[in-house]
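Memo subject: From amino acid sequence to discrete backbone structure tokens
Action wanted: Derive the backbone structure tokens from the amino acid sequence.
How to read it: Take the token row as a discrete description of the fold.
Attached in line: The record itself begins immediately under this heading.
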Amino acid sequence: MSEFAFEIIGAPDYAYAEVIIPEGKTLKVEASAMATMDTNIEMKTKFKGGLSRLLTGESIFINEFTSKAGSGKIGIAPSAPGDFIHLEVKPGEEYFLQNSAFVASGMGINIESKFQGLTKTFFSGEGLFLIKCSGEGDLFLNSYGGIIAIDVEDGYIVDTGNIVAFTGGLSYEIKSIGGYKSLFLSGEGLVAKFSGKGTVWIQTKKVRPLISWANPFRPQKG
């Protein structure tokens, strides 16, 4: 049973969430994602993750919102234009998220960075760290584009730029399709080859192709 009542509005294009924080409870929210809140909610900023979070290039602060004198409502607006989903984490479960996917969670969720290894990092281009979430409670994720959940029974391949999250029961390796000549000439990126049994959440859009598409339209000096 969820600790927080919530409603997700505008999914999957421009999702926004309204979360009810019960009196005395605290919700952890990614820095800058708070859009609105009731006046009885207090905010504290906490430094999270140390050096490893600094190296990801992502926010190193997580804001904690606590409701005083009754329940309060907070509106959460993620930075990426896309979907917003809720996962209920149970004891013993682990979820691995791309750097930008974390939006909010209850205090029972442990958040830590997981080093991918230099080989995976160098070739994937998707950042040095994944975010590992475990514990018990509510976890909210955001994506660029819509989110699709895929159940993996044995093996599955996903472009690294489309991965939002995956369960701890899966292992993966980064590789190219068709060799490195195809990698540079076809426009396709590297992929993660998953094995084991679990769930992968993918996003329907990738940031890098958008940047490439938009680049010719940038104003040119001279």
